[in-house]
Amino acid sequence: MTDITATKEAERRLRASEQRFRDYAETASDWFWETGPDHRVTKVSEHSDTITAPAGLIGLTRWDIAPDADLEPEKWQQHRAALDAHIPFRDLVYRSKDRSGQPIYVRTSGKPFFDADGAFLGYRGVCTDVTAAIRANQAEDALRKAQAELAHVTRVTTLGELTASIAHEINQPLAAVIANADACLAWLQRSPPDLQAAGRSVEWIIEDGTRASDVIRRVRALAKRSDTDMAPLDANVVVRESVALVQREMASHAVSVRMELSSALPKIFGDRIQLQQVLINLIMNGIEAMEDVHDRPRELAIRSAASGDGAVLVSVSDCGVGISEQAIDRLFTPFFTTKSTGMGMGLSICRSIIEAHGGRLFAAPNQEHGATFQITLPLHREETS
Length: 385
Ligand code: ADP
Description:
The protein has helices at 5-27, 62-65, 73-84, 131-161, 163-189, 195-223, 235-252, 272-289, 325-328, 346-356, 381-384; strands spanning 31-35, 41-44, 89-97, 103-114, 120-129, 230-233, 255-261, 268-271, 298-306, 311-317, 360-365, 371-378. It is of the alpha+beta class. Helix 5 packs antiparallel against helix 6, helix 7 packs parallel to helix 8 and helix 8 (272-289) packs antiparallel against helix 10. It folds into three domains: 5-129, Beta-Lactamase; 162-225; 228-384, Histidine kinase-like ATPase, C-terminal domain (Heat Shock Protein 90). The chain has eleven helices and twelve strands. 47% of the residues lie in helices and 22% in strands. Residues 281, 285-286, 289, 318, 320-323, 331, 336-339, 342-348, 371 line the site of adenosine-5'-diphosphate. The site of adenosine-5'-diphosphate has 22 residues, from helix 8 and helix 10.
């Protein structure tokens, strides 16, 4: 007679444990697989027909199934090397097809298993359908790219509108260069030559040449399609550079600019070109808003200040037509425009640029005439500590 109570109890526990794991497995949205020593699928969890797991896998290897096996040879070489070395692998993502033949992305992890003598029998592991997550990432990337493209297009469009101003900005110093070169020649042709005066003319030539090339550098930087380039910045410099590019536009619309820039401004952290794009947009909008103003001076006020709570404020105020109650909520909506030739993208792009900087952009009607657009930008980290 042998007392088998303990054995029976152990068996009961084992069955309960098996049942528990089967329950887990069958309710999981993941599926489980097993491959043999030749890495061909020998088993797929039974419940897989209720989820998106591919069908008809038995007898195939993973690289037989994946259409990306040829496209990403390196990934698969690494994977096969891991399998041949009988080491576990984690989070291999590859393309596959669900049971209706639709492409899906799956993520799989597996570990080798061996018999009692240590002989390699194959791998066991888990597969998850990660299509939704990957598609969401792809959509987000595409959206970001489209936004950057659009920002670039509007920047180039704005530059197109500014061609006359830019040409003027470059022509002025060039004319001065020619005049000073003439003067220099005249000083040299004197007898005896006045070398001191000639030298002074050459210095002016250098100054004007540098001025012209600065304008070209700024225009090229604005027109360039580039990735975001974040750096510590002085907001006042960004304001001055933007104003320099639209100077002529203001002059030809008889708009004067009043700058009230705080001299004690902490640094912000941002992309100089993108912030210039925002300011140029706001300034151009201000100029356009004052086009029909004839009974008061057309003045644009640009202010900068430290807000005291870890931000820099930059505002652009005009005394133009102003913004109606109904329009104020829609200004920043893409394609909202009240202009016959407007695209209605300017403010929406401005807002997305400022928000990407961790800041805010909003508009408010002025008490008397016109509107104020206010930007808040967070300080550069070193300035806050
Ligand atoms: P667009 O200039 O192409 O119309 P925006 O997005 O820059 O596109 O501007 C959208 C609309 O917001 C303008 O059509 C105008 O009605 C209004 N708006 C923008 N700036 C001002 C301003 N400074 N004063 C009054 N209205 C403005």
